[in-house]
Write a structure and sequence with these properties.
It is a single chain. The chain is an alpha+beta fold. It folds into 2 domains: 22-96, no CATH class; 99-176, no CATH class. Helices cover 21% and strands 27% of the residues. It has helices at 2-13, 51-62, 101-113, and strands spanning 22-34, 84-96, 123-129, 151-158, 163-169. The longest helix has 13 residues, at 101-113. The radius of gyration is 20 Å and the shape is globular.
Amino acid sequence: GAEGSTLMSYFSKNQIQALKPKITFSTLRDLQCPVLQSNDLQGKPEESCSTEELFEWLGAVLNQASLDNKSSSFLSTYCCPEPNTVVEKAFLCTITGFIIPEQIIQLLEQLCCYFGEPKLAYWLTLTVHGFADSPVSWREVEHGFHKGGENLYNFVIFRNLDYWLQMAVGAYDDCPP
């Protein structure tokens, strides 16, 4: 109709350019990291941490919360789960913008190359987070905001190329496939 042709002429006159994703890098020094075993999702006391403990730890790291359980902290008294190890240097890269699935696959492939020589990392993670107020989340179903707008998945990739896939979704949303 007339509305459609008006929109088409608007877009043809005004070149709409996709915004380039914003990329930030940071180095986290002397970071306490949970000890993980790729074949042990539940974790074992004094041997490895569970998937839930990792997910909680990752949330604290990505939000730059302190991990040292200081009672004087007004922000967080969270501490890294046991067992853990101190990593001298951890790299955090954040890419913000509209990212298509093909680019996420490319990122995963590039991350897996990191396990080549020198073999420094035991595992790495890639978290893909939808905007809290995005209109859809999973299975093209309308996304309910309600409280937090949870809408994310996280890959944990191990040196032997085993991986975990964690998904989080709001209480009123359709479950991921």
